Amino acid sequence: MTTTPRLFVTGAGGNLGRGVVESLLEAKAEGAEADVVAGSRDPGKLSDLAARGVELRRADFDDPEELAEVLGGIDRVLIISAPDTPQDPPLRLRQHLAAVEAAAKAGVGHISYTSMQKPEPGSAVPFAPDHHGTEQAIAQTGIPFTILRPNWYADSVFMWLPQVLATARWVSAAGDGRVAHVWRDDLARAAAAALLAGGTESRRLDISGPEALTAAEIVAIVNEVFGASVTLVAVSDADLAAGLAGAGLPAPLVELLVAIDVNTRNGGVATVTDAFEWLTGRRPRSLRDYLLVHRDALRAAARAIAQ
């Protein structure tokens, strides 16, 4: 006799976690068999999900004993990586390791985890060791796993593109490095599909957009989509750091932004795969698609900066 699998999503109050839960509910509406459990530090904020048949449980990575109890009876868990903690760099890895230990203690049958592309030693990204350490801990449990290694979010354009549009300049040290941006909503679909699939095999999957673009190619797309005349300004790592510091950005953020360009230049986010399509049966959406969908909002943000 088969039973309906109980699927647990950590961080369900965040944007990605909420997207995973929504994707699971969509799959259920289309006939998938699953009981969805949403975990959050504050499950009261997810009351609308309860009304749609989602079980809510408090899940706090800083309380591993309670977390092990919360995961009792769960068949498959998705551990969504916690936010970066530059004010306390070791905290995130401690939280992740506590979540992995709790999953193992609870006896879950499959662990999924949202990592990053190429987190192995040697990565220029300061938080890569958090993901590498978490991946190692998951593998050491002996529990079958699905590690999702997403590229940078297309959604991150809201952090830099309005300024670029407002000034008509994009300063970059990424050289000819390429980025295969993925929509956060597409990662959510992939994570939901991995949870639904489960299985006894372990795998690491790079989740990417359909194409990897250089900074120059991204500028060309931006100019086409927005009717803009943005110029790419290529600089050295040192000059980029000096410019960011001169703009008043805090030192940890300067270090991160420079490292992202170094990582791009080194090929850290250039991988394009069909893993998303294999998991979901859909084609991933492109950076151009994202810019077209959010063009009005990005233009409004740029106007606000220029005023």
UniProtKB/TrEMBL annotation:
Pfam families: NAD_binding_10 (PF13460)
InterPro entries on file: NAD(P)-bd_dom (IPR016040), NAD(P)-bd_dom_sf (IPR036291), NmrA-type_oxidoreductase (IPR052718)
Domain of life: Bacteria
Family annotation (Gene3D superfamilies): NAD(P)-binding Rossmann-like Domain (3.40.50.720), UDP-galactose 4-epimerase, domain 1 (3.90.25.10)
Domain NAD(P)-binding intervals: 11-195
PANTHER family membership: NMRA-LIKE DOMAIN-CONTAINING PROTEIN (PTHR47129:SF1), QUINONE OXIDOREDUCTASE 2 (PTHR47129)
Protein name: SDR family NAD(P)-dependent oxidoreductase
Source organism (scientific name): Paenirhodobacter populi
